TrEMBL record:
VOC domain ranges (all copies): 5-126
Record-linked PANTHER family: GLYOXALASE_BLEOMYCIN RESISTANCE PROTEIN_DIOXYGENASE (PTHR36113:SF1), LYASE, PUTATIVE-RELATED-RELATED (PTHR36113)
Top-level division of the source organism's lineage: Bacteria
PROSITE patterns, per database record: VOC
Protein name: VOC family protein
Pfam families (alphabetical): Glyoxalase
Amino acid sequence: MSVFSFNHIALSVKDVNASTEFYQKVFQLKEIKNTASDSKTRWLSLGEGKQLHLIPRPNAEIKTNKAVHFALTTRDFSSFIEHLHVLKIEYSDWLNTSNKDYIRKDGIKQIYFQDPNGYWIEVNDAILHD
């Protein structure tokens, strides 16, 4: 059987420049070269060979749902929450309690917030529980 590993996530975005700026500001992601094409799609490195591809689709209808999200983990969960406060980015727990984290049954803390296109992002401290 084949073995798989995560490579990238691709998001359709209304304004590729605004979305790139958001992800660089919030997560300090480095832009990398789009080696696939000469399109206006922008690529950001998530580290360890993982990538975020932002594909411009200014006329696309983007539907979001909190259950459809991607999650990033950090050792500096509290510092990241402070960073969101500085950036004036609202976050919530799974139940939509504003500016509140949630502690899962397994002890992992998590928060949710949305990017400029409405995509849901989870940030958690699961890396501390590995």
